[in-house]
Design goal:
This protein is an alpha/beta fold and about 220 residues long. About 50% of the residues lie in helices and about 15% in strands. A five-stranded parallel β-sheet has the order 2-1-3-4-5, with helices on both faces.
Length: about 220
């Protein structure tokens, strides 16, 4: 059996009481039953500071801020699969998750998630969970990962909605693990990734005097 590592990041500030966390845990359980080792990370428990747009990571390869970002990104890069989850907070992800995502510009420029798979989960008290899940999968794809699907639920007054979504999330986790094990291809996403890689290489090359780390990164890949 292929060894798989899947990391799930819960953007809810409610931690273990989070309904989004319930779905995230279900995805991880499904993946674990399919043979993956899993880890849950709660964004609200991390010390991650705001990106200030200094661009030093482009030149030096890491952010000068001393917080939990470097370790968290390292876990994501070391994983085969990534699950992102957030409730809908005014038509977007939570601040706790967004501050992590905003620090990942260097990872986008270098397409650090190429070869990985991911999925997303979201909940909303009223509406908009689907939009948040779509956004999260879009983030994963922009970073280079293939996405296998999403579970989003607008709970409203339906007390049973979360239970139905939890079962769907479990199956999504199984499918995520299967995609990793198969090395599943998504031709449409593959075309998107190829276009993104060319765009990022061109952007970095145009700024090679200022973005030394990123230029060296792409140069080293070209020599492999």
């Amino acid at each position: 059996m292929i060894e798989m590592k899947i990391v799930g990041i819960n953007g809810s500030p409610r931690g273990r009481e989070s309904r989004t966390g319930t779905l995230l845990d279900a995805v991880l359980r499904g993946a674990q039953e399919a043979g993956a080792s899993v880890e849950r990370i709660d964004a609200a428990a991390l010390d991650i500071r705001f990106c200030t747009g200094c661009t030093l990571c482009y030149d030096q390869g890491e952010c000068p801020k001393k917080d939990d970002y470097k370790e968290t990104l390292g876990k994501m890069i070391a994983a085969d699969g990534i699950v992102l989850g957030s409730p809908n907070y005014i038509n977007n992800v939570t601040a706790q998750l967004k501050v992590l995502l905003d620090r990942m510009a260097d990872a986008i420029h270098c397409q650090r998630f190429v070869g990985k798979y991911g999925c997303a989960v979201s909940t909303a008290g009223g509406s908009g969970a689907g939009d948040v899940a779509t956004y999260l999968n879009g983030v994963l794809r922009v970073l280079g990962a293939d996405t296998v699907g999403a579970v989003a639920v607008d709970i409203g007054a339906d007390a049973e909605a979360l239970f139905t979504a939890e079962a769907q999330a479990f199956r999504l986790g199984q499918d995520l693990a299967a995609a990793i094990a198969e090395g599943r291809a998504y031709p449409e996403q593959g075309a998107f990734h190829a276009e993104m890689a060319e765009r990022m290489k061109a952007l970095v090359t145009a700024n090679k005097e200022r973005w030394k780390h990123e230029y060296d990164y792409w140069s080293a890949l070209a020599q492999k």
